Amino acid sequence: MPSPPHAISRTIPLGDSQAHETGPGGARRPRRTVVPPNPVAPADPVVPEPAATPPSGGPEAQDGEAAKTRREAVRIRQLARLGALFAGFAHEIKNPLSTIGLNLQLVKEDLGEPDSPRDQRIVRRLNVVESEVRRLQGILEQFLGYVRVPELHTRRMHLDSLLRELVEFVQPEMRERGVPVRFLGDGADREVELDADQFRAVIVNLLRNAMDACQDGGEVIVTTRTQGGVAGAHEAIVQVIDTGSGMTPEVREKAFTPYFSTKKQGTGLGLPTARRIVEQHGGSIQLDSEPGRGTAFTIRLPLAGASALPPRTGASADAADEENDG
User: What spatial distance separates the first Cα and last Cα of the chain, rounded to whole Å?
Assistant: First the structure.
């Protein structure tokens, strides 16, 4: 992977007492301040370090953590009850939708090949209704997939092998869209406990989002590394990076909010579902993005035999939690 971009030096206006410094021979010259590069660069995406876990405090801090854990457990139970309620409601809508779709097909079969302009108009309108029924069925399927919390069937897997497989799977589709994609592993033979089907869905969703962001140019890169060094390694870091259009701060803050989408046909459930699956695996997902420079999704997963990671941090996660609590 290319080396990170060098820091940029530029002159920053200051007060008269700070704006200059004395050079060789006593000459006065403008003071220069070193400014770090942006976190995501199109030519050389930066791999951000995950947030550090704060050290544990005394008894009062531990009591506060225990209360927070209890509140979180109550919130999860409430969401589970709401999820069961909404899932039942969605099933009640899904059944008549299937009946409507079936009857539309029967009506079209009865009409046969339309000969008159009137019959052609009828068939066109039936096709529109049938298309909308299919779209609603798709939305319901995604909704049910989000509100259900399926039991994970995990097994120990080689993470790099799985990711390399997934990159090869999406390559033909991306090549057709003119978006290059590559996998950059660090050669480590790391193992994680994964539900392969669920985790595949997460990565494919992120790859397709990245592909959509690169329609006007850019590439997609998947990277892996291990956090904590060789002796003390405890988590695997997976990044899905694109050098495409990026997100505005407003979009970035709402990215994990259910039903928020910037796509015309989007349901807004892809990223919330991805986050839920990653957290079910004891991991976390973080988003970094900048308009015109690209986006990086960082997934942290415990290595096989390690404990679950600390709760996620970051503005995107906090915003989504506030939305769900409301």
Answer: 43
217 close to 269: Cβ distance less than 8 angstroms: no
- Looking at residue 190, the DSSP 8-state letter turns out to be -
Q: How far apart are CA 26 and CA 244, in angstroms?
A: 48
pLDDT (tens digit per residue) in 60-93: 666 777 887 787 677 667 766 766 677 677 767 8
Do 129 and 274 fall within a single domain? Answer: no
Cα 235 to the center of its chain, rounded Å: 18
The residue type of 168 is E
Rounded to two decimals, what is the model's pTM? 0.56
Extended strands (E) in the chain? 8-11, 20-22, 28-30, 32-35, 155-158, 181-184, 191-194, 220-227, 235-242, 284-290, 294-302
Domain boundary among 124, 147, 170: 147
Residue 140 and residue 183 share a domain: no
- Give the three-state DSSP class for 202: helix
Q: Could you read off the pLDDT of 22-49 as tens digits, one per residue? A: 455 555 555 444 333 343 333 344 434 4
Asked if 307 and 173 sit in the same domain, the reply is yes
Q: What is the CATH number of the domain that holds 294?
A: 3.30.565.10
